[in-house]
Design a protein that fits this description.
By secondary structure, this protein is mostly helical. The chain has 15 helices and no strands.
Length: about 425
Amino acid sequence: MRGTVDTYRKVIALTGPLLPILSFFARLPVAMSQFGSVLLVVQTSGSLAAAGIVGGSLSAGQVVCGPLLGRLADRRGQRPVVLAAAAVNALATGALVAGALAGLGTVPLAAIGAVTGASIPLIGPLARTRSVALARRAGAEEEVIGAVHSLEGTLDEVSFVFGPALVGLAVLGAHPSVALAGAAVLVVGFGSAYALHPTAAATAGSPRPARAATARRPRHPGIVHAVRGSLALQGAMFGACQAGIASLTDRLGVPGQAGIVYAAMGVVSAAVGLGMGTLPARFGLRLRWRVATAAALVLSAPLLVTDTLGGLYAVVTVLGAAYAPHLITAFALTERAVAPGRLAESMAFAASSLVAGQALALAVCGRLAEAHGPAGAFAVAVGAAALCLALALFARVPSARSHPAAAAAPAAAVPAGPRGSYAGR
């Protein structure tokens, strides 16, 4: 326990205590927007089909444009990109609310939804990039960099538990439009604060000579594409579990339990993710990837025969223990393999792969659950876990960092606080 606290103290010494708080609240709109938009369109139009189209358009916008925002952040720096994206996203979210309340048709609402998704500042991937840059400039040990990935993964998991919960509270107390208005306020307030935090200097963009050199855009090593595939399959597991949980709780006559079951999985995942920061460096990324994907396959298999609410809670909660380790390891593998000048783009691409897999699985598994019951959706989750394990077993994982120059970035480029950190800011 003492070792865990000491490790995370080193991480906070690098970032300062305020940055993780700002990045956490800036992540919430990502988790709130899609869920809130679906509930808003359902309530204003009465059409589940229209809500699905709008929500799907929002996800598609994020999947397509997320890597582009990441590339811009690599080249121009995080500060201007996040400030601009936050402003556009708040306006688009407001337009989506106004359009739904005014009774706009599905097509214009879907177009607004696509802009809303495309402009979501991907704070999670950008925060990972910034924290890793701070750690590299400070010459941090691999254990500390692993703790950085664990902390960022935990913040992601907690945001995806609290985001939908906030939407649910807003719907119960008022209207879905209130939830989306809250998301717009959060993205402007906390997104801008994240962009303006002094640590943004660590990700100010590549200097002109470096940009010219990267214009040739060398190919990523194969592990990067394998990890993206693994994350897409992880997203498919999320989507399939959501559809299966919704189907089973509805069949049992307790549809309101679906969100609580899913949240329980997220809480356990976040707790295990936080503990990942204490794993020793000798427990390498290749082994972590294989153990996490094997655990996901073993722990998801009981879903195929689960038919009670108690059993569902037990299986899904335990399954959450496999999710964060896989996500954290996947982002760590990405950080190890890509050039520093393309890290934000690569992190955003990885996150978009996760979203794409989830959106596609939701669309497919909803129909499977209608036709074959919850087991139809859960079978997709188990199949995706098996494919994840196959990738982990057969993909070639480099034994060393592909771009060792990342560790040699000049510390003078970042104005530091006491002992080279931002702890005092």
